[in-house]
Amino acid sequence: MHARVAFARELSPKLMEVNLSSKRIHWPHMLTVGGASILVATEVTALTWAAGWALGGLLGLPQIFALGLQLIGAGIGLTASYYFLRAALRVEPVITLKAPDEQGGLTLGEKPNGSEPARLS
Predict the structure, then answer these.
(1) What does the pLDDT look like over 98-107, one tens digit per residue?
(2) CA–CA separation, 12 vs 74, rounded Å?
(3) DSSP 3-state of 37
(4) Which residue did the predictor score with more confidence, 35 or 25?
(5) How many Cβ atoms sit within 10 Å of the Cβ of residue 110?
(6) Are 23 and 95 in contact (CB under 8 A)?
(7) How far apart are CA 114 and CA 67, in angstroms?
(8) How much is the mean pLDDT over the chain?
(9) What are the Cα distances from residue 67, in Å, to 46, 51, 52, 71, 79?
(10) Rounded CA separation 85/33 (Å)
């Protein structure tokens, strides 16, 4: 935990100096994360929605309670999809920062001196 705080303090001045023109989107990673997130979100939300529908029918609940179970299931599915997207963005560097001198760039999640990548998990 202390390493993460120290790394954030070390990286903060660099990130404060960055303007919008120095950011680049890494499109292959963006397409990978976007496609996987859409696929996982659809499957998980449909699975949890269907589980609510099946439980409501199996238990013989009135329609309003079955609908409530479906909505709870959909909420769980959307929450799981959100956390999947956060984890995917941690692993795949989607936005890279160009160095002010245009020699290479600094990837989010990488130490400023470029010696070794840091895991922000």
Answers:
(1) 655 554 555 5
(2) 37
(3) helix
(4) 35
(5) 17
(6) yes
(7) 53
(8) 76
(9) 14, 11, 8, 6, 18
(10) 8
Q: Count CB neighbours of 85 within 10 A.
A: 17
Sign of CA pseudo-dihedral 62, 63, 68, 71: positive
d(CA 63, CA 4): 49
C-alpha–C-alpha distance, residues 110 and 120, integer Å: 9
CA atoms within 13 A on the CB side of 95: 10
Q: 87: which 2 tokens?
A: 């984890």
Q: How far apart are CA 99 and CA 23, in angstroms?
A: 9
Tokens (6 digits) for 48 = 């949890």
Q: What are the tens digits of pLDDT across the range 60-70?
A: 999 999 999 99
Which H/E stretch holds residue 24? strand 23-25
- What H or E segment, with its residue span, contains residue 69? helix 63-91
CB-based contact 47:121 (threshold 8 Å)? no
